[in-house]
Structure to design on (554 residues):
């Protein structure tokens, strides 16, 4: 794997019986890059993402994530990455502090580290007064930002965000992206899926999957030039319209 | 004629220690044959409003009428006349596509054949899977089956709660075309969505946040009420540019919008050229600053800040 490469994927394939969900995809993601992973429903994004997180074994192909081999070192991969899904993933019946304690504990952080992290996080999110508030009593926008912070509690090299801003109000959506920018600035690689096409334009590079294959991969500005359109929404529609399979 | 009338409706829930005001003094009307959108994020109160209008929940205060019938006194009439597609898939997972359709048709004392014209465009897309159990359908197919079931008795008013959430951009476009087709057949449609760009596809919209309606108007009407000139700013380092803009005393608001930052200024006249030079000196190059039309999302954020 090249220096400065965070994720390296070569001909990665996943079959379920006769169905090829992910069909020989290849790409590299640089360290500190914000990489947008787009595709229509059923294009194979979730399956690809599950493989990269070490949760599902590929049928064939090669991949290294954070320098570790997908087949032999999936446990090391899990320790080096953070993951946040569109569905809220904190424990509603625990307080902010308790959620941190729980997730920090899972990743093997010491009490001292957990306390430091928690203090930093509460300060950064302006939630100092809410440390002992149950998560279910927080407004949705705060939960989403908190969830992102918790997914980064162990300083992962890569963070996977699966539709992190679904249903969030437009102000919070932008605050959330400011957090993504900050994380990338500190050197964390961000691998993100979204249905918001303006968010695709915040990414350094974007790939678009159609029917299990990556049909386009470049910077948003190069893609809009290549397809001679105004923005990523038009690029996406042009490519996804060709899809033969829907999410069956 | 008004198809939906909502008059000063309040609703609170007990959640933990403190009550949550899900709906605060909601008043609006939807005309017959109108495609009306409730636009707002999760927690705005959209689903609660749907439940009250479909007679599944009682308001704490206020009144509402659907098709001229009162939601409490005439609830039986309303249930016969409306179609409702909840946000969460609520059909019978272990019945097939066909069985679900005939079940709902029977409930309303009709058949698929009787109103076939109405559901034809949607049903042909799921017909190849008519022997498949609903639980085994894909997300997009479930959505189409749910819409077919909601239409099977030819309702006069259709309630669609976030039908496009989590759906990709292409399928969303197709779904809105279907809605336009239904509207042409005379059906009043109340639809909710968290996607602000879909507001422009409605005749009129209510922008909702935290249980309140911030504004009701046509999409064009809302955009024309945006208060300040809006500028689209671009440069070779968008992150730094946002930082610089937000710390500039002349800048009122600055939000990322895809390839641009949308910016409003405190002063009515701005020297664009000197502004460009100043930001260049701070290290951002290839700067363009152009006037741009606000989107519904710009308007929504302006209203949130008021």
């Amino acid at each position: 794997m090249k220096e400065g490469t965070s994720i390296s994927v070569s001909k990665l394939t996943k079959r379920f019986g006769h169905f090829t969900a992910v069909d020989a995809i290849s790409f590299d993601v640089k360290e500190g890059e914000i990489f947008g992973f787009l595709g229509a429903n059923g294009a194979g994004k979730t399956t690809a993402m599950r493989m990269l997180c070490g949760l599902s074994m590929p049928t064939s192909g090669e991949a290294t994530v954070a320098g570790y081999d997908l087949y032999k070192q999936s446990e090391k991969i899990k320790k080096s990455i953070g993951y946040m899904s569109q569905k809220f993933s904190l424990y509603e019946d625990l307080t902010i502090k308790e959620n941190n304690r729980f997730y920090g504990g899972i990743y093997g952080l010491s009490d001292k580290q957990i306390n430091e992290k928690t203090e930093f996080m509460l300060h950064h999110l302006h939630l100092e007064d809410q440390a002992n508030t149950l998560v279910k009593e927080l407004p949705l926008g705060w939960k989403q930002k908190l969830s992102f912070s918790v997914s980064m509690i162990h300083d992962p090299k890569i963070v996977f965000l699966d539709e992190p801003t679904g249903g969030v109000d437009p102000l919070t959506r932008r605050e959330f992206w400011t957090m993504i920018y900050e994380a990338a600035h500190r050197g964390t690689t961000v691998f993100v899926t979204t249905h918001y096409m303006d968010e695709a334009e915040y990414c350094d590079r974007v790939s678009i999957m159609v029917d299990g294959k990556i049909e386009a991969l470049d910077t948003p500005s190069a893609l809009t030039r290549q397809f001679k359109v105004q923005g990523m929404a038009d690029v996406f529609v042009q490519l996804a319209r060709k899809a033969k399979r829907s999410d069956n | 004629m008004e198809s939906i009338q909502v008059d000063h409706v309040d609703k609170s829930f007990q959640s933990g220690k403190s009550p949550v005001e899900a709906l605060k003094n909601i008043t609006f009307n939807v005309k017959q044959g109108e495609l009306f959108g409730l636009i707002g994020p999760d927690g705005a109160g959209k689903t609660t409003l749907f439940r009250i209008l479909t007679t599944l929940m009682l308001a704490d205060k206020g009144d509402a009428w659907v098709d001229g019938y009162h939601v409490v006194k005439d609830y039986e009439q309303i249930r016969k006349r409306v179609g409702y597609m909840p946000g969460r898939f609520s059909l019978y997972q272990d019945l097939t596509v066909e069985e679900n359709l005939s079940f709902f048709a029977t409930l309303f004392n009709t058949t698929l054949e009787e109103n076939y014209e109405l559901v034809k465009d949607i049903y042909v897309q799921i017909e190849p899977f008519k022997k498949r159990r609903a639980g085994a359908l894909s997300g997009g197919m479930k959505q189409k089956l749910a819409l077919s079931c909601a239409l099977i008795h030819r309702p006069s008013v259709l309630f669609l709660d976030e039908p496009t959430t989590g759906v990709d951009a292409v399928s969303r476009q197709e779904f809105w075309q279907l809605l336009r087709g239904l509207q042409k057949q005379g059906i009043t449609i109340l639809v909710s969505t968290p996607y602000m760009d879909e507001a422009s596809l409605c005749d009129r919209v209510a922008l909702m946040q935290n249980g309140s309606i911030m504004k009701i108007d046509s999409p064009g009407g809302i955009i024309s009420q945006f208060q300040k000139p809006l500028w689209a700013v671009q440069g070779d380092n968008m992150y730094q540019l946002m930082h610089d803009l937000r710390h500039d005393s002349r800048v009122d608001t600055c939000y990322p919008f895809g390839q641009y930052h949308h910016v409003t200024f405190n002063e009515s006249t701005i020297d664009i050229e000197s502004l460009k030079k100043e930001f260049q000196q701070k290290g951002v190059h290839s700067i363009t600053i152009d006037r741009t039309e606000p989107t519904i999302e710009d308007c929504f954020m302006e209203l949130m800040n008021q």
